[in-house]
Write a structure and sequence with these properties.
It contains twelve helices and 14 strands. It is α+β, with helices and mostly antiparallel strands and 284 residues long. The chain has three domains: 46 residues, Uridine Diphospho-n-acetylenolpyruvylglucosamine Reductase, domain 2; 115 residues, 2-Layer Sandwich (Uridine Diphospho-n-acetylenolpyruvylglucosamine Reductase, domain 3), CATH 3.30.465.10; 92 residues, 2-Layer Sandwich (Enolase-like, domain 1).
Length: 284
C-alpha cells in the first residue's frame, strides 16, 4: 500500500528537528532508518502529517569508545556496529547480536537508536541494552535527560520518551566476562520467537556478576535480576543454571501469535535462555 500524503522535513541539526516537533506537535514524528514507521504508514496504521528525517544530523552519528565507556550515536547503523573494531573488542556481544538482526540490506539502513527508541517488543537491541545496563540520552524542548534502559520500556510501543523528545545516544560501560546472544526465529530476517542476552563474570571459579535479559517474550523486553542472582555466588553448575532458567522463564509473559502458541514459546524460551547462559559461562 501507499501511505497517506505527508510533509517531509530533513533538518540539519538537532535544534532544527526539535523546532519542527514543537511547531507541529502530535502531527509530527521523527524517522531514523524507517523500518518500523514506514511499514505502519503504508498499512495506514500510522497517519503522520509531518515526517522529520534525522539522516542529515551529524550530531546523532558515530560510535565512540573511550577507555571502558562506549557511546553509540542514535543514527549509527547496525552495519556500523558490525564493522567497528572497537565494538568487537570491548563489547563483542553487540557485534554478535547485530549480525542476527534481519538481513544485510536492513542492517545497512537500520539504526541503533531507531531499534531501541520506539518500544517494539520484537526488536533485538532493547533487551541487549538492558543486559548491558545502558543509559539512553534524550533531548527535548525541556532540555536533556538520561533514562536507564531498564526503566525506559512501559508497554508495547509505549516508552518513557516524551513526544517532543529525540533519543540522541546510548552509552554503557564495556561488559566484563563471558557473553552470548541467542535467538530463535522462523526464517532469516524475522523477529525472534525468543531471544536472550547473557553476560556472566567468573572470578576464581565463582560467578561474581551476571546479567540476563530477554526479547519478544512479553510486551516489553525483560531484564531478570532474579536470574542473575541465581548464578551469583555459585560455580555456575547445573543446579545454578537450572535456577537461573527457572527465574528467567518465570519473569516472561508471551502471547500467542503467528510464531506459535504460549506453551511452544515457553518451551523455546527455556531452551534459548539455557543456551545463552551456558555459552556465556563457557566463555567466562
Amino acid at each position: 500500500m501507499i501511505p497517506a500524503s505527508f510533509e517531509y522535513h530533513r533538518p540539519a541539526d538537532i535544534s532544527a528537528a526539535l523546532a519542527i516537533l514543537d511547531e507541529y506537535g502530535d502531527d509530527a514524528r521523527v524517522i531514523a532508518g524507517g523500518h518500523s514507521l514506514i511499514p505502519m504508514m503504508k498499512l495506514r496504521m500510522a497517519d503522520i502529517e509531518h515526517l522529520i528525517d534525522l539522516q542529515d544530523i551529524g550530531e546523532l552519528k558515530g560510535i565512540f569508545v573511550e577507555g571502558t565507556k562506549v557511546t553509540i550515536g542514535a543514527m549509527a547503523t547496525q552495519h556500523e556496529l558490525i564493522d567497528n573494531g572497537d565494538i568487537a573488542r570491548v563489547a563483542p556481544i553487540l557485534h554478535e547480536a547485530a549480525l542476527q538482526i534481519a538481513d544485510p540490506q536492513v542492517r545497512y539502513m537500520g539504526t541503533v537508536g531507531g531499534n531501541v527508541a520506539n518500544g517494539d517488543p520484537g526488536n533485538d537491541m532493547p533487551g541487549l541494552m538492558q543486559c548491558l545496563g545502558a543509559t539512553f540520552h534524550l533531548v527535548g524542548s525541556g532540555g536533556t535527560r538520561d533514562v536507564a534502559a531498564r526503566d525506559y520500556y512501559e508497554a508495547a510501543y509505549m516508552t518513557d520518551r516524551e513526544d517532543d523528545e529525540i533519543l540522541t545516544a546510548i552509552s554503557f560501560n564495556a561488559p566484563e566476562g563471558g557473553f552470548a546472544y541467542e535467538k530463535q526465529k522462523r526464517k532469516i530476517g524475522d523477529y525472534a520467537t525468543a531471544a536472550c542476552a547473557a553476560i556472566v563474570k567468573i572470578d576464581g571459579g565463582i560467578c561474581t556478576a551476571a546479567s540476563i535479559a530477554m526479547t519478544n517474550l512479553s510486551d516489553t523486553p525483560i531484564f531478570s535480576a532474579e536470574a542473575g542472582a541465581a548464578l551469583e555466588g555459585t560455580a555456575c553448575d547445573a543446579t545454578a543454571i537450572d535456577a537461573a532458567v527457572a527465574a528467567a522463564t518465570g519473569a516472561i509473559d508471551p502471547t500467542e501469535d503467528n510464531r506459535g502458541p504460549v506453551d511452544f514459546k515457553m518451551h523455546v524460551a527455556g531452551t534459548i535462555i539455557r543456551r545463552a547462559i551456558e555459552r556465556a559461562v563457557s566463555r567466562a
